[in-house]
Amino acid sequence: MKRSKIKIAALALALGAVSITGCKKFLDINDNPNAPSDADVTLLLPSAQAATGFVLGNQFQIYGSIWGQYWTQSPGASQYRSIDQYSINASSFDRPWRALYTNALQDLQVVIRKSEGAPQYRQYAAVAYIMKGYTYQMITDAFGDVPVKEANNTDITNPHYDAQKIVYDSIFTYLNKGLSLIDVGTEATPHEDDIVFGGKMALWQQFANTLKLRAFMRLSNVAGAAMADSVATLQNAPLLQADAKITYSTTGGNQNPLFAEILSLGRTVNLAASATAVNAMNALNDPRVKVFYTVDTTGGANTVAGIAQGNYNNVPAGTRFSAPTIIVGADPKNDQSALAPVKLISAAESYFLQSEAVARGWRTGDAKALYQQGITASFTSYAIEPGTYITTQVAAFPGTPADQIKAIITQKYYAMCGNQGFEAWSEWRRTGFPDFFVPSKVSSLGGTTMPARLLYPNTEVTQNANFPGLVPVATKVWWAKP
């Protein structure tokens, strides 16, 4: 077994042993049991990538896909009822917070430190800076204000929190630093120690540029004029044309993180298809719906059906409904779910970001053509025959910029079904699209109020003397649509 696989297995076992709603242990974010200062960069880099991928593909995937209304709690089960109810517990976020700060960011920081004065590790540092930017965007988009300046400093056990604007400034700094270190022609790259691109630095260059574009677009509501100028700097920059993803195997400890969660819960069918996404995709005769969800073939029906969001207590006995499939790592009865990748940024997302930038007048190009490329990339990634779907959707591409943005984000939503749940939910928070979300039938928030962030972990409440205070789940993050 390769060193990176060994490290991933160890990490997955450590993080996957407890389900996302059951962890009660309090751990300090600066207390890393892996003692990374003693480890080699060739182990630390894949460990950090695996930690980020684990949280993105497990906890954040579940919250994002339920609150993004791809999935809902399955009748007859109970694991995710509190998520469907928007009634969540701060202790549920102890484990992902620790994984991101202690396992991912701390390891990345050590990679950067150990690479100083070591030319053979320069490309490791480049990847580490880029992954640091990616991971911080995940954290701040989930929680809002978070520690950055004083985070992962062994001399500071109670880090202060930084405003989201400062966090985003740091993200751009990390990405620019990583890009400045990239040498696409060097042979001294991570190779197998990089579990995302295998040390292909040209792809890391594309990834960093695409991540910058994503981050620029995320701030469209709060810094539009500045972001227009920033997006323009990427006009000729190479951007992703293929999925940036972490792949897995059926070997114990190396499975898709969501499937690892399912295994820890005894293969219970906890997730059902949400009628919100299913009905919208069925209305467009979208063939992807039969790839993302199980198909009922009873009596030759060949249909996909969802249940209303949060309606798990009121589904009549014998009602047939679909569930997420192996494609998104969520079929508990099929071990092929273990092979589903975790997508950090998809090719489809890259094209949709470019299309939106053009629609806003922030980038030159053909918004309609890029929109088509985004839809095509989604179909291609799942080897699905689109039939007339793409031509129909492109023919219906509207003329006004506002309507174009709505179409672009809505198609992005379909493309991210069950495979980029956290990003889809984040884009809904930013834009309000798709505009067909409905409150959960069991919402604890009342009215049309929807969840707008994750809760700070209980470990911060109890251990960080500089913790600024709890923020309700319905309070919008800085960049969200007003």
UniProtKB/TrEMBL annotation:
Alphabetically sorted, this entry's keywords are: Lipoprotein, Signal
Query: Could you say which residues form the signal peptide?
Result: 1-19
One of this protein's Pfam families, by short name? SusD-like_2
Transmembrane domains' residue ranges = none
**Keyword ATP-binding appears in the UniProt entry:** no
- Please indicate if the UniProt record lists Transcription regulation as a keyword: no
| Protein name from the UniProt record | SusD/RagB family nutrient-binding outer membrane lipoprotein
Q: Which organism is it from?
A: Chitinophaga agrisoli
